[in-house]
Design a protein that fits this description.
By secondary structure, the protein is an alpha+beta fold. It is built from 6 helices and 12 strands.
Length: 250
């Protein structure tokens, strides 16, 4: 995808519909600004397929990770029925070849001790040689494939895992089209049950680099503690509130 065709190409995270989708348009605006920074969005040329990869130079990647000359893999996604056809391997190989051709140090991505639903398949990445080079709060790991022997690392602030706010707090950017509808449902539910909440848009690179937790495009805190980078729906919010009830409910 390029600045020339971004307004016409479908964004296959959510297949384009006849009506405008606020999440897609938010991502399109975010992506248009990122392409000039070296962000790559490569996809299968099929408007019915969710098959794509996104990566960027780590210097301009909206994540609290640092490493000179590295690139960051945001997302590699191949949705059924397109699995098993070699698309994932082709996308990963194209990413690695591109980054290596640029003379960069390697590619890194966010992982975890246990696979998270909203992170790329780390077992697949490890087949290419990715390995854990750093850890952070909540069992999250930084996976990396080095071309020159150097390694990236989480920014020190990403290992803090705490904030002063006690209410449900969600940090997010506009990269994932699913964020907009998820936030709408969470807002509605929290207002319905009178649960305090704070939504914090991440709108600048510097803000993303300084976040107090791992971040891929979304991060959740509750009672001051980091919870997850998984995109939450109302069911998960209910479970979180039940598992960690506010002091006023005890």
């Amino acid at each position: 995808m390029s600045p020339e065709n971004i307004s016409d190409e479908h964004l296959c995270c959510i297949i384009r519909r006849r009506t405008s989708h606020p999440g897609i348009e938010a991502k399109r605006r975010w992506l248009a600004d990122r392409l000039a920074e070296g962000h790559v969005f490569r996809k299968l040329d099929d408007p019915s397929a969710t098959v794509f990869i996104e990566y960027a130079p780590l210097e301009t990647a909206w994540v609290p990770i640092e490493g000179d000359g590295w690139s960051y893999l945001y997302c590699l996604w191949v949705l059924s029925p397109h699995r098993g056809k070699g698309y994932g391997r082709a996308l990963m190989e194209s990413c690695l070849a591109d980054v290596k051709a640029q003379g960069r140090s390697g590619v890194c991505m966010l992982g975890a001790k246990r696979q998270k639903a909203w992170l790329s398949d780390q077992s697949f990445a490890k087949k290419f040689g990715f390995q854990c080079v750093d850890t952070s709060v909540g069992g999250y790991e930084l996976l990396a494939l080095s071309f020159d022997g150097s390694v990236p690392q989480f920014c020190p602030n990403a290992k803090r895992g705490t904030i002063d706010q006690q209410e449900l707090t969600i940090y997010h950017d506009a990269q994932c089209p699913f964020i907009v509808p998820a936030l709408e449902k969470i807002r509605a539910y929290c207002k319905e049950v009178c649960v305090p909440f704070t939504i914090v848009p991440v709108e600048r690179l510097e803000q993303a680099k300084s976040l107090p937790c791992p971040f891929n495009n979304w991060a959740v805190f509750y009672q001051g503690d980091f919870q997850t980078v998984d995109l939450l729906d109302v069911t998960h919010v209910k479970k979180l509130l039940t598992r960690c009830p506010p002091a006023s409910r005890t």
